[in-house]
Amino acid sequence: MKVNTKKTLSMISALSLMAAALAACGGNGSNSGGDNASPSASAASPSASASATASASADDELKPEDGASLIVWESKEFRPRMETIAKAFTDKYGIPVKVEEVNEPDQINKLMNDGPAGVGADVVIFPHDNLGKAVAAGLLLPNDYFADDTKTENSEASVKAFTFKDELYGYPRSVETYALFYNKDLIPNPPKSYDEIIEFAKTFNDTKNQKYALMWEISNFYYAYSFLATPGGYVFGQNGSDAADIGLNNEGAVKGATVYKQLKSILPMKSGDATFDVKKGLFTSNKLALDINGPWAIADLKKAGVNFGIAPLPTIDGKPNVSFSGVKGYAVNAFSKYPNAGRLFAHFASTKENQLADFKELGFLPSNNEAASDSTVTSDPLIVGILEQFKNSYPMPAIPEMGNVWGPGQAAMADIWDKGTDPKAALDNAVKQIQEANKAVK
């Protein structure tokens, strides 16, 4: 396929804009209480000794430990791709790798217990908003041996996202946000607003036969946040760094939650029933016209032969929709028995070649600069919609207090959806819970 040079340059520019939009990610935690956290002495010692192990000259080849074997955690839907990476790593280094299923957003919480107990994964993969909490708990080894490679090869924004208090911990893999996927055979032109979707649903919906105009993972606060943020809500003030300033129950957030509540009229199901797999099944069988999803869904939809496009999220009261955006990456467990092998795997899995393969197979947008500017990425018309939405996205805060937001936020939105709770009351309760939990973060 002949690549349009102007289009390629335009897409590279858009990816650069994505990096700029995420530039605030890494600095959010610089003034948080990580130094005052109180991990046990056993939590601090593995990191110190393992860092010493990796302090060799950059000209020296990092040597894995004798008899090393690794466990890597990965989400169910991405496990086949990770198995491929693991096999290639084993073929190169002779180190066995076992891939276990743990959802990426849940890995740091699971590592809290499994790490000190010595049963956690050696390498974890998680969104950057969990970094502050993980570092404060002493769970991760710094990315020290491969730091120069990581900083040189990846976008500045993705590197900052995995930097906490001037220390790099992660090995960036991808950057992302979500947008509006539309089935062109059911709705040729994407709607611009939720009002348009409600009107479309009046003639399209057939709930008895599970036919819906719009669906998203209703119970997932990652998606629900866009309803609160678009009219003026926010998580924390000062670009996500001020945990004392919570804007999830301000006037704008309440207004957005009211719009969210109204959408149940066109999606009459319990919030927990709108899962990733349910949406995928309906979208691929032409029973779902519009799906709020991310680049990770692109590859499977292409394989299924769906005639679809991607557009920015619907507006609310004419305002561009503000989605969450983030960076995902690898990190090495501070309690790993094989820290060098873990470093080798995290570096190997996040190379340009593997990031391009991730894009081709899973639709992940690369954090690697060369991969992001590769024509394979920049010539894909579906990526345009993701990048357009990314321009209005907001980086998830990475301070430790962000870990206290997900549970109360999700519960509040579920109460609004499932129980018909007054949006103001539900959001006030969520903020109160977040404030109480934040008191424990030192």
Automatic annotation (TrEMBL):
GO terms for cellular component: ATP-binding cassette (ABC) transporter complex, substrate-binding subunit-containing. It comes from the Bacteria. Keywords: Cell membrane, Lipoprotein, Membrane, Signal, Sugar transport, Transport. Residues 33-57 have a biased composition (Low complexity). SUPFAM superfamilies: Periplasmic binding protein-like II. One of its GO terms (biological process) is maltodextrin transmembrane transport. InterPro entries: Maltose/Cyclodextrin-bd, SBP. It is a lipid-anchor. It is found in: Cell membrane. Residues 1-23 form the signal peptide. Pfam families: SBP_bac_8. The keyword Cell membrane applies. GO terms for molecular function: carbohydrate transmembrane transporter activity; maltose binding. Residues 28-62 are annotated as: Disordered. Belongs to the bacterial solute-binding protein 1 family. This is Maltodextrin-binding protein. It comes from Cohnella nanjingensis. The lineage of its organism: Bacteria, Bacillati, Bacillota, Bacilli, Bacillales.
